[in-house]
């Protein structure tokens, strides 16, 4: 088990070295240290301050300085589909800052003053958790789509049962046979029946 885990580490590090990172941070001592450490890791880094309304293309990770003066700043890209994960760089620790970090959906933080220790771990943990969240979101969407399809089939069966005086099994068998004849998915046939019923009722 340990051997398998160690064999994954080089690839994980290579993945981190290929990242495109945006550092939204003032060009102060902390900012210079952050930039230097990210460059030493091998990341492609772009630094900006203040925050941008839109992100550069293919941004994989965002480091964001969270400070009292930035709490009211709007980040439109945060809610965009496919937005990259954010790693906050935190100079203060109080309830307001903690709440801001939580609203960013951060998996971990980098404390100020920035040091080399912990930076690589923060990136690795963030990427892993972000991938897990995306996988979970895809799974939830598939489940929701499947449930929607099942509801559609059930509705089509009900229409056939009412209009043709069929049992539930007979209605389903009719749906399935029509799907085979037309070489369509059963959900497609069900949708057609529902639309036809809506037109006739109208």
Task: Provide an overview of this structure.
The chain has 202 residues and is an alpha/beta fold. It has two domains: 132 residues, Rossmann fold (3-Layer(aba) Sandwich), CATH 3.40.50.2300; 61 residues, Winged helix-like DNA-binding domain superfamily/Winged helix DNA-binding domain (Arc Repressor Mutant, subunit A). Helix content is 57%, strand content 11%. The chain has a five-stranded parallel sheet with strand order 2-1-3-4-5. Strand 1, helix 2 and strand 2 form a beta-alpha-beta unit. The longest helix has 46 residues. The chain is elongated. The chain starts with a helix and ends with a helix. The model has no long low-confidence stretch (mean pLDDT 86).
CATH superfamily of the largest domain: Response regulator
User: How would you classify the helix and strand content by structural class?
Assistant: alpha/beta
Spatial strand sequence of the major β-sheet = 2-1-3-4-5
Number of domains: 2
How far the N terminus sits from the C terminus, by CA atoms, comes to: 64 Å
Low-confidence stretches: none
Shape estimate: elongated
Percentage of β-strand residues: 5-15%
Broad CATH class of the largest domain: Alpha Beta
Average pLDDT for all residues = 86
Q: Which range best describes the helical content: under 10%, 10-25%, 25-40%, 40-55%, 55-70% or over 70%?
A: 55-70%
């Amino acid at each position: 088990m340990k051997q398998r885990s160690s064999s994954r580490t080089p690839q994980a590090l290579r993945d981190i070295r290929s990242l495109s990172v945006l550092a939204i941070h003032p060009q102060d001592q902390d900012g210079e240290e952050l930039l230097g450490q990210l460059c030493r890791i091998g990341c492609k880094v772009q630094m900006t301050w203040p925050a941008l309304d839109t992100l550069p293309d293919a941004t994989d990770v965002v480091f964001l300085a969270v400070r009292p003066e930035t709490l009211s700043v709007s980040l439109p890209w945060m809610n965009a589909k496919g937005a990259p994960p954010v790693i906050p760089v935190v100079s203060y620790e109080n309830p307001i800052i903690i709440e801001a970090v939580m609203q960013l959906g951060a998996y971990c933080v980098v404390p100020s003053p920035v040091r080399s220790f912990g930076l690589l771990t923060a990136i690795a943990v963030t990427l892993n958790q972000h991938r897990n969240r995306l996988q979970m979101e895809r799974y939830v969407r598939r489940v929701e789509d499947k449930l929607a399809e099942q509801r559609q089939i059930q509705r089509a069966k009900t229409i056939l049962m009412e209009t043709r005086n069929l049992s539930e099994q007979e209605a389903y068998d009719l749906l399935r046979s029509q799907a085979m004849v037309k070489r369509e998915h059963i959900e497609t046939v069900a949708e057609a029946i529902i639309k036809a019923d809506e037109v006739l009722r109208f």
